[in-house]
Specification:
By secondary structure, this protein is of the alpha+beta class. The chain has four helices and three strands, in the order αββααβα. It is globular, with a radius of gyration of 12 Å. Belongs to the BolA/IbaG family.
């Protein structure tokens, strides 16, 4: 069973991230991801970047479920924190 820290490391191996927070129970995980690699990408493309990078883990069911709660650029994340 995976830990949130292991899933975080998997995400960080896929994209250069300025911030990643992962919560979960070993089966279902929820992630907040901030990455400059999201610049100029639509929301779906941001999610696809991460999910495609984790495709083998998802297909093998090693990583059962990952919900990307936030996929923001550093500027978007900073603005959201001020709200």
């Amino acid at each position: 069973m995976l830990t949130p820290e292991q899933v975080k490391a998997m995400i960080e191996a896929v994209a250069k991230c300025e911030y990643v927070e992962v919560e979960g129970d070993g089966h279902h995980f929820f992630a907040h991801i901030v990455s400059s690699e999201f610049e100029g990408k639509a929301r779906l493309a941001r999610h696809r970047l991460i999910k495609d990078g984790l495709a083998d883990k998802l297909a093998s069911n090693e990583l059962h479920a990952l919900s990307i709660t936030t996929a923001a650029t550093p500027a978007e994340w900073e603005a959201k924190q001020r709200d």
